[in-house]
């Protein structure tokens, strides 16, 4: 049948042909695919074929018909899970939101509706199911519905829903679940945190101490590990002008933290949990204050109500608690206020002077004096900056004028230097050296003329200017022994070697004098002297000669003569550097590769 010719009666007849649970799936498809029907007709379809409610006579008045359940609790949970799966499978979030509105919204938005109690209980079960399965689409739709509901009615129904979630599902409360909740639906997490803080602020809301500890742990873990996600989502919703009373959890969270010492909790562990909670709030506020996004100024101004901190002071001052509790409240209050006033766009515009005048209790704490002094310094700096604006402007203009003057002066100097450099480049290469030599010659000629005119010797006059160090240096250079002038033939080479070896001889004068006494006149040889075979050298002299010969052999081994170029050698190189490298490789590895090279030459290599 064509969708354009369908009527609500046709759809009802088609749905009657299905049995549970197929009728539920068919009804969900009909609600999604038939937007041409009225909201009332689609809501009636959901009531009859999704939740399987039927009309029956009232127990008190048989003539009055009321809606009753026809399914047991297990079947109801099955229906709610089918709804959850259907919403999660929708690719378009707007389509899923429209189906959710048709199923729940029309009834839950009117507390006087006859089906309100049934639908309210169903919704609580559905919410528990969605949280258990961590369904992102469903949680986002519910959070959006919370925002819509808070604009049309009060926040009381939402508070009841969150209270039910806290009381009935506290067993699900763990750091893992709240972290997953922040990741899956940050918007729903904002609503949950805000309503939880509101409930814990209510003194008439009674919970077991262990439950409160668990809730505080949840809030602490969420603030610590999902800081950036919560801040970005909160900023996005505030800039989108969503309902601040529902999603802005910061005021209620600060109120819960500051006024906690006034509550009559006796548990030491709970106090410890609240201390951790206070630390996480300070860290969260600091991250929020240091947020440098473009819209941070608008976001930070809208975070706290204008009289929020004054109201907290009023509650603390009117409290009848002990002085220790009040002092703890003041410390928490001032620490949070110090963080809020850190940024250039503070979260609170309240002045410390006015705060101390209206609430004298705050002046007892040292932190108040520090904040007051810091605020006074900031005001003085602002006033000084405003009074010095014109002076700074005049100084900047004068400095700018001076910079313009320097720039023009540098431009002129650079131009002159470029001309001079171009002139120097046009001169010969050794022009400066020639000019310097001519200048020196002119100075020497001038000094010679002056010395001749005075009747003095020019050389002696010049030597009068020499220093003692220069004279010593010149003498050492003249007296240098055995200057290495090289050699031109083998005769000069032999003579050089003889001179060098003779210069290394160290005569033994004691042995010489002893031998002179033994030989007497024969020590000085004559033409007829015969001393061959008569002299026996000492062992020390022999060792000295052996050592000298070994040094000569070692030096000869290190000497490398120039090798002649072999024209017939194989050319296995591409340039001179490669030839030297190949020779070095052959010297180290030639003996290992000789057989391989021979095989390659013969053509027998494997």
Describe, in short, the structure shown.
The chain is an all-alpha fold. The chain has helices at 8-16, 22-33, 39-50, 73-88, 93-108, 116-133, 136-152, 156-168, 175-184, 186-201, 209-225, 227-239, 244-247, 250-259, 268-289, 296-301, 308-318, 323-340, 352-358, 366-387, 389-426, 431-454, 458-463, 468-478, 490-503, 509-519, 539-558, 576-602, and strands at residues 54-57, 65-68. It has 28 helices and 2 strands.
Would you give an account of this structure?
The chain is built from 28 helices and 2 strands. Among the domains are: 388-416; 427-480; 571-606, no CATH class. Helix content is 69%, strand content 1%. Helix 10 (186-201) packs across helix 12. A two-stranded antiparallel sheet has the order 1-2. Residues 171-176 have low confidence and may be disordered. The chain has 606 residues and is mainly alpha-helical. The protein has helices at residues 8-16, 22-33, 39-50, 73-88, 93-108, 116-133, 136-152, 156-168, 175-184, 186-201, 209-225, 227-239, 244-247, 250-259, 268-289, 296-301, 308-318, 323-340, 352-358, 366-387, 389-426, 431-454, 458-463, 468-478, 490-503, 509-519, 539-558, 576-602, and strands at residues 54-57, 65-68.
